[in-house]
Amino acid sequence: MEEMDYWNFSLDILLGYFLGAIPSAVIISRCYGADILASGSCNPGATNVRRVVGRRAGRIVFLCDVLKGFLAVRGAIYLAPENPQLAVIAGLIGAFLGHNFSAFIKFRGGKGIAVLIGGMGAAMANVLSVGLLTWSVVFWVTRYVSLASVCFCAILPLCSYLFGYDQYTNMAVLLLSTFAIVRHIPNIRRLLAGTEYRFTRPENRP
């Protein structure tokens, strides 16, 4: 990469970080009179908001987080149109780090699944499609969001490689997916212990 590429890469990461760092879950939950950082699993993500505040609030947070990832990648491409592959990597990394370690809430954050969905939807729709299909099947069978999310992350690097993306993009997807899985370690432990929260099917709800 040339010197200007390094400058654009840094600028794109910075843009992505501040977009990703917007604490959607905290803002939306406060609008409903709840402190998501002290409720449920205390995780500022859409799943916890849905459990604590309600389905509508959870959907709003999810859409906001997806939008953060999408805007981060599209904004990065706009700032560095001469090197879109580098821009995609920078936008994804920045938004993911911002969401997971938000400077606005003392470097706490969610697990980054929605941000990954938005970012990949902006530039890697074919990879995202397989990932979403995997998530949907796993969730439909098990009703565990966490397990579906782990499987979603696990399939992304393989799809990125099989669809012929460059080695730097493949490496970025692998690193981000791996980190997202690591963020789910507490959920994995609860899954193994049989104590993980499970969404009931509509027909089974009281």
Could you explain how this protein is built, in words?
- The protein has helices spanning 3-20, 24-31, 46-52, 55-79, 84-100, 113-123, 125-142, 145-162, 167-183, 185-193.
- It is mainly alpha-helical.
- The longest helix is centred in the N-terminal third of the chain and has 25 residues, at 55-79.
- It starts with a helix and ends in a 13-residue tail after the last helix.
- The mean pLDDT is 91.
The overall pLDDT average reads: 91
| Spatial separation of the terminal alpha carbons | 58 Å
Helix content: over 70%
Number of domains: 1
Return residue spans where pLDDT drops below 50 for at least 5 consecutive residues: none
Number of helical elements: 10
Percentage of residues in strands:
under 5%
Largest sheet: none
Task: Output the helix-strand order.
Answer: HHHHHHHHHH
Q: Sum up the overall morphology in one term.
A: globular
**Rg result:** 17 Å
Structural class based on helices, strands and sheet pairing: mainly alpha
Number of strands: 0
